[in-house]
Design a protein that fits this description.
The chain is mostly helical. 54% of the residues lie in helices and 8% in strands. Helix 1 runs parallel beside helix 3, helix 3 runs parallel beside helix 4 and helix 5 packs antiparallel against helix 7.
Length: 163
Amino acid sequence: ADLAAQIDRVLAVRPHVAVIMIGANDVTHSVRPQRSARLLADAVRRLREAGTEVVVGTCPDLGSVQPLGSLLRRYARRTSRELAAAQAIVVREEGGRAVPLGHLLSERFDQAPEIYFSADRFHPSALGYQACAEALLPEVLRAVGLLGDEDPEQPALPAAPTA
């Protein structure tokens, strides 16, 4: 709901690249994927029209959130994946770069929730955010011309720490 206002603030500083991680709140607040994707498309379009490169970490896999019951986790996983797919389409259509965080990281979060989730067991921990940053970094580097397109599409992430 606050994305347009955030874009207003960001455009005031004329960034070379903007990184957007988005989707979890839309899933938890039952925002329809089409509406969420449309708002994201508008944001990416505005940034691209201003000459800003855009990297979007698409919706994470909320099916990894352990405190949710199994039926709710299944629903959250399906809804997260639907939203991430819709986000990836609109981001690419508007000239941005989409990074599928749910696809890249859900196994880690599923296998080691005590490491990757914070004490509230919903938000990522510092290591969870580090994993997100590591997943986003190659596309950020490509966006600013420091990593070529001929380089591997998604370099392997460092090994997950053990509990």
